[in-house]
């Protein structure tokens, strides 16, 4: 397991390709700068995804092949994980 500084937050599943943001970077980032395809390269964002927020809540988004606009409404700064369902 990787040893990271206490103030770092893992932003993807625990694996070698994880993207890490410090809390300071997360707080100062704007939604426009957060590209979900860069943050979660293993997710296709074509059909159904589960988005996990910093507070532990999860939300499932369906039919992204028709309603991809919902991805722009998600506050990606507050997302800790995202995966296909």
Task: Report on the architecture of this protein.
It is globular and about 35 Å long. The N and C termini lie far apart (26 Å). It has one domain. The chain has a three-stranded antiparallel β-sheet, with no helix packed on it. It has a two-stranded antiparallel ribbon with strand order 1-2. By secondary structure, it is α+β, with helices and mostly antiparallel strands. The chain has helices spanning 23-28, 36-39, 70-73, and strands at 8-10, 20-22, 49-53, 58-61, 79-84. The model is unreliable at 12-18 (pLDDT under 50). Strand 3 and strand 4 (58-61) form a beta hairpin.
Unreliable residue runs: 12-18
| Oligomerization status of the protein chains | single chain
Radius of gyration: 13 Å
- Please give the share of residues in helix: 10-25%
Going across the biggest sheet, name each strand in turn.
4-3-5
In what range is the share of β-strand residues? 15-25%
Shape: globular
Major sheet description = 3 strands, antiparallel
Distance between the termini: 26 Å
Total number of strands: 5
């Amino acid at each position: 397991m990787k040893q990271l500084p206490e103030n770092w937050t893992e932003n993807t599943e625990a694996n070698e390709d994880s993207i890490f943001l410090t809390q300071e970077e997360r707080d100062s980032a704007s939604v426009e700068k957060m590209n979900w395809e860069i943050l979660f390269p293993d997710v296709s964002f074509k059909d159904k995804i589960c988005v996990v927020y910093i507070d532990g809540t999860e939300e499932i988004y369906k039919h992204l092949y028709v309603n991809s606009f919902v991805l722009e409404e998600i506050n990606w700064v507050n997302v800790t994980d995202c995966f296909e369902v």
